[in-house]
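Task 17 of the worksheet. Students: predict the tertiary structure of the chain below and write it out as structure tokens. Keep your answer in the requested format; marks are given for formatting as well as content.
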Amino acid sequence: MTKEPDPQFEKRLLWGLLGFFLVAIGVNTYLHYIAPGILRVPQETDLPRFLWPFPPLEEPGTYFLGFLCGYHCLHRRGLWQLMLFLSGSFLITGIQENIWILSGRFGLTPPTYYFSNMGILWFLEIPVSVCVGWFVFAYSCVYISEVVFGPQKRLLNAFVGAFLAMNIDLYMDPLASHHLNHSWTWLMENTFLIFSIPLTNFLGWFGLIFIFALLWEKTGDWAKEIGYRRATLRFFLLIPILDIFLFALLYLSWIFIINPLLGGINLTIGGI
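Model answer:
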């Protein structure tokens, strides 16, 4: 068993992931702007969607931070684990957020939320910049925990990293969804809110990053046990399974626990 992945395997994986995401982003961006009726994209302006919004200033900044984190991960963990973390960020964010958005939009669950003007490129119903931002927060917070507690304490690092990212979102989400910024719009009513943001949002942030960090840290062990190809397959199979399980857990908690016990409460300061 080699200690490093086969360069040819890394190359094929890289081109395969690039091809998949380029096609997915191209098709979904087309659907979002040119054919919004297919996914029932909310229309908030009389202008055609491909003429708006102008790229917000934070979008190129998010991509630049993503580049810095990717460069750091490449030199620290290698190309294979960088590809897993970055592409896994797209998948785990994309699956979870799109399930929430589209299930509410098509009546499978009560209405949830939708993104308004977060960027130009789209991955189904979430902006690509949101996926990159999730990668930035998840990677940097888990790395900070590793610096403090040591890389051997994986469970603790996943917990602390997820907790740090959740607290950043506790500050960021109310600002981004405020009517002055209007990056996304919440539709969830009669639920427990923190700064006008549903509690399930913060629970989801914590759960996603905690699970993802544990999986990603295990990929090195899996590679030694079963090889890099099978470890890659295991990683990409477990992500959607655990993602859907987390969605079901959050949804059941939302319907049967949070709403009946705490529905209608908004912990806020100054109406934020």
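Marker's comment: Helices lie at 7-33, 58-77, 79-105, 128-149, 154-177, 199-226, 228-262. The beta strands are 113-115, 122-123, 126-127, 184-186, 193-194, 197-198, 266-267.
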